[in-house]
Amino acid sequence: MRTQSRSRVFAAAAGLGVAALALSACTGDMQPDASDVDCTDYEEYGTFDGAEVTIGGTILDLEADRLVESWSDFSACTGIQIDYQGSSEFEAQIAVLAEGGNAPDIGIVPQPGLLARLAEGGWLIPASEAVEAHVDEFWSEDWKTYGTYDDTFYAAPLMASIKGYIWYSPSEFEENGWEIPATLDDLEALSEQIAADGDHKPWCVGLESGDATGWPGTDWIEDWMLRLHGADVYDQWVTHEIPFNDPQVVEAFDAVGGYLKNEDMVNGGIGDVSTLVTEAFQTAGLPILDGECSLHHQASFYETFWNPEGGDEVTVASNGDIFGFLPPPANAGDPLSVTGGGEFPVAFTDAEEVEAVRAYLSSDTWANNRVSLGGVISANTGVDPENASSELLVQSIEILQDPETTFRFDGSDLMPGAVGADSFWKGIVAWVSGDDTETVVDEIEASWPAS
Questions:
Q1: Is residue 26 assigned to a domain?
Q2: What is the domain extent for residue 214?
Q3: Which of 52, 58, 308, 329 could disulfide-link to 6, CB 3.0 to 4.6 Å?
Q4: Based on the structure, what is the number of domains in the chain?
């Protein structure tokens, strides 16, 4: 998963020579004024007049603006100036920046696998007691594990997402008498019915995401792996207890291929199958609004992309312009299972002001502030779901907080970087471009690190 293609540039030296990344986003560089802020909620973090903390990540555009807004009162009350810069190259470059001593004070990483790589490199600062206390209070043990490497706790979760919503137009469903599918077979039947009607292709899909092109396809595979084979097999696949070319993985690929590699199913409003790898994931669902496709598989965070400028022209609601349903189970009555993702603010600088920022970001105060600004959710148990900006996001938070939900973190994000952030993405691109399933899963399996 790439939590979004959130792309602006952080900066720095990369590669064998010095390749400068063009600066394209720098936010939060103005010190807020505390005179109009109630600082009661921020007293526990102390004061650091004149301190500056830099943060880098993949969060961009409207979401970056909201991120900066979410800490503006904290910044005003503590005196910490926070400079956030987002980059489409952050994931690819952060290890290079860290090795060269050019990393930001805090990096918001969307992959536990990348966190493990950075920790293994010796570049990360373990989380403070204050951060760990917040995680123990507000997050499940599974979420804490995602921020832990080799028994050392490095980072609290930040935001979260449910990865597999299927977005649709409620009015189109009502007009055609379509029901929300109750099983994967029902979803296939609905897709075939829409295709047979001949007015438009049922699905619209975009896999393009810069250096991370292909990741939306991994989300499809992960959803089908979890539903077809259950949580235990999913865990075995992610941890390589079964090989990547196991027949169960092949089955999931082939089931998804019935959509992504099928000219009758994609790519509504965009083109043929070849356009999957050229269409940006941010815009791929928009043909639903024009009646050019009916279904789009993308995470809960996609709500932001229906109104990219922050307006409310498109209403996300069960009786609105757009809504979403979760991919159904393989069999009626199977337990609710969801895949999801999140981000983790890791520290490269050992400083009190850095840990103060990270403690705030791990708190229920920050989580409620950010969720209230719209477009995102959190698995922080201190979040009031009613603070979410839409019916779908309220539902998403309730799902994450429900102890009966079977939740599994995005599989590619848990896999070693050589697989989850490289061969799996590239394999998806090759696969939808014509390579057969066996060839692709064999090549991904061969890329799995020996140790």
A1: no
A2: 166-339+412-447
A3: 58
A4: 2
